[in-house]
Amino acid sequence: MEIPQEIDSYIKESIDDTLGLPVSAETLQLKLRASEDTLHRLHDQYALLFQKSRQKDQLIHRLKAEATMNFMALKKFIEENQRLAEECANLVSRCQNLEKKCSLYENDRELLMDFANEADERATEAEIRANQLEEEVLKVSEELKLHKHFDSPAERTDVEACLVESLLTTLVSKDEIEYGHAFLELLQAWDSLSPSTQKVLSLATNVNNLQKEKELLRTNLAKAEQELETFSRGLNRLNYLRRNKRKSIDSVRQPLSPLRHNSPNGRRMHKK
Q: Which parts of the sequence are annotated with region: Disordered (predicted)?
């Protein structure tokens, strides 16, 4: 295979130049053009590398700024998380206190309900007993009316019957002044009264005492019902507050949204 004449001449001229022999101007011109071409290529490569270096510097600057912003956001997130943890602990403590108060109110409510039921039962028993005693008083009064004709002193029987009738009438009408007057008159003549009359007076006194006890029990029952209603309202209020506190605690415990990247280049870098 034969070498082209131009290449052969170039090789020969290169050898002569290396050996220090004179070289033709054409060969030097070719070398100059080759050097210029190489210089242009190096200049283009330098410009390209410089542009890429500037892009890398800009990217590094953006990444540093994004890292700084992410660090500040992370720091703020940590501080917010600590603050929410403290608030959550305070809410848990308050919730525990409210639960204790609710437990105490529940116990008080049960005690009041038991007391109200007991008072109601006692009032019912007293009313039944009062009705029974009233029936006994009526029976004794009828017996007294039957036996008054057989007593020897007619005047004393008439006085006793009038006083007993006055006392019974006063007991039914509940007039304290007339009842006290009749009672004093009977008390002065107690020793001279017949046993049936004394029994009537004793039964009347028991009936009056039971009626007073019944009224007192009704008053206590009404007060207990009012207190029970007040405690019920307070307990409902505490239950409402406790439900709200638990809802707020659950909302605080929800996870926060993740941090977002601040630049599209940063998102592309994370995707890579």
A: 251-272
Q: What is the pLDDT of residue 267?
A: 45
Rounded to an integer, the average pLDDT of 166-178 is 50
Report d(CA 118, CA 75) in Å as an integer. 64
**Residues contacting residue 117 through CB under 8 Å, at least 6 positions apart:** none
Encoded tokens for 17 = 């130049």
The answer to whether 141 touches 164, Cβ cutoff 8 Å, is yes
How far does CA 143 lie from the centroid of its chain? 69
CB atoms within 10 A of CB 100: 10
Identify residue 215 by its one-letter amino acid code.
E
Q: Which residues contact 140 (CB under 8 A, 6 or more apart)?
A: 196, 199, 200, 203
User: What count of other Cβ atoms lies within 10 Å of the Cβ of residue 141?
Assistant: 19
Distance CA 207, CA 214 (A): 10
- Give the number of other Cβ atoms within 10 Å of residue 119's Cβ: 20
Mean predicted confidence (pLDDT) in 218-226: 77
**In the 8-state DSSP scheme, what is residue 190?**
S
pLDDT-based confidence at residue 98 (cuts at 50, 70, 90): confident
Task: Please state the separation of Cα 145 from the chain's center in Å.
Answer: 71
| Phi, psi of 266, deg, nearest 5 | -60, -40
Which amino acid, one-letter code, is at 49? L
Q: What is the pLDDT of residue 46?
A: 94
Q: What is the pLDDT of residue 177?
A: 46
Query: What does the pLDDT average to over 257-263?
Result: 44
C-alpha 129 chain-centroid distance: 49
